[in-house]
Design a protein that fits this description.
There is one protein chain. By secondary structure, the protein is of the alpha/beta class. It is built from three helices and six strands. Strands 1, 2, 3, 4, 5 and 6 form a six-stranded mixed beta sheet that branches. Helix 2 links the parallel strand 1 and strand 2. The longest helix has 27 residues.
Length: about 160
């Protein structure tokens, strides 16, 4: 009886593996960039920004060699990112209850002998404010912005792999 139960478990495991592989599922790994982007020059309007540093880390994780100042290499320019807040709702007393955060990112890829490719995108998040817990909400906002920047840096590298 125990062997029948173990056989059922193994059969279920094999079935799950077959179903996962047949649907095309695979674990996400670092993006594979085109061969001409294996060595690039990374510049930015603000090279000390959190987004610039995250893009740099993502590129290194994708096995891209970064060099500075070489005009013969493709150049990725990270322009200033921008965060805008729009009020979504108010409390009865008129204080803001909820914001919509719009995080705008733009970058330019210049390849030698080809026209520059300008890309931009926006990421949106809703953020609930609570004036009674201002310190906790400020920390939550910092964490939310950090996650948005990480998502933006991953998206930049993912888009580069498709250009």
């Amino acid at each position: 009886m125990a062997t029948l139960h173990a056989l059922k478990n193994r059969l279920a495991l094999v079935l799950v593996c077959v179903l996962l592989t047949s649907c095309g599922f695979h674990l996400k790994k670092a993006s594979n960039l085109p061969d001409d982007l294996n060595v690039i020059s990374l510049v930015g309007d603000d090279e000390k920004s959190a987004l610039f540093e995250l893009v740099e880390k993502e590129l290194i994780a994708s096995k891209v060699e970064l060099q500075h100042g070489d005009r013969l290499l493709p150049e990725l320019t990270i322009h200033r990112d921008r965060l805008e807040r729009q009020i979504l709702s108010l409390f009865d007393n008129g204080q803001v209850a909820e914001y919509e955060l719009a995080y705008s990112v733009s970058y330019t890829l210049k390849r030698p002998g080809q026209p520059a490719i300008n890309q931009n995108f926006e990421l949106y998040r809703n953020y609930q404010d609570d004036p009674d817990n201002a310190l906790a909400k400020a920390k939550e906002l910092d964490l939310l912005l950090s996650e948005i920047r990480k998502q933006a840096s991953r998206r930049i590298v993912r888009e580069l792999s498709q250009l």
